[in-house]
Amino acid sequence: MKNSVIPAVERILDSYLEMNNHRKTPERYAILRAVYSMNGHFTLDELGEKLTGEYKFPVSRATLYNTLNLFMELRLAIRHRFQGTTKYEACYHNNSHCHQMCTVCGKVTEVRSPEIADAIDSLHLKRFRKDGFTLYIYGICSTCQGRLTRQKNTKKKTK
User: Fold this and answer.
1) Which stretches of 21-158 are assigned E, i.e. beta strand?
2) Beta carbons of 148 and 102 less than 8 angstroms apart
3) Which of 2, 13, 70, 80 is the most buried (most CB within 10 A)?
4) How far from the centroid of its chain's Cα atoms is residue 23's Cα?
5) Nearest partner of 75 among 93, 63, 99, 97, judged by Cα
6) How far apart are CA 20 and CA 129, in angstroms?
7) How far, in Å, CA of 66 to CA of 70, rounded?
8) Pairing of strands 77-82, 85-90
């Protein structure tokens, strides 16, 4: 699905660069295509590895960072801070979503919740226009919960 929006996001980038008299560099477009080919959340390093390995287009860490900041300004990417880790994701036509985050292993999963989206859409805020939302739900995933239960049961048996 994300690959199908690449022409649209490239047009947004084109318009911005033209209106602000910025250069249309191959790096910006390669990074944009790589961002929209990533599945889910990714780190700066993972994006750099994809560009170097798959795209054969190495770019500096500074270029990645600056370009992702531009994409965030254009609302083409979003940055998340997950338990001490910074991750990014493509967000064209996905400005509103929820994440469940395991506080034990750090696993992050996107959650679709039309009820929450409807509640926020119907929320009336004074002197504020909503563009989207991100909700973080913290807890323990089933894998970690199972491991914790097994550890607890093992300790009971050894006593």
Assistant:
1) 77-82, 85-90, 96-102, 108-111, 133-139
2) no
3) 13
4) 26
5) 93
6) 25
7) 6
8) antiparallel
For 92-98, which contacts have Cβ atoms below 8 Å and span 24 or more sequence positions? 92/5, 92/8, 92/9, 92/12, 92/36, 93/5, 95/131, 95/132, 95/133, 96/120, 96/132, 96/133, 96/134, 97/133, 97/134, 97/135, 98/134, 98/135, 98/136, 98/137
Whether the Cβ atoms of residue 83 and residue 101 lie closer than 8 Å to each other: yes
pTM, two decimals, is: 0.76
* Of 146 and 157, more confident: 146
28-66 exposure pattern, b = at least 16 Cβ within 10 A, e = fewer: bbbbbbbbbebeebbeeeebbebbeeeeebebeeebbee
Query: What CA–CA distance (Å, rounded) separates 131 from 2?
Result: 20
Residue 97 CA to residue 117 CA, distance in Å, equals 8
Scanning the structure block, which residue is given the tokens 């859409």?
Answer: 121
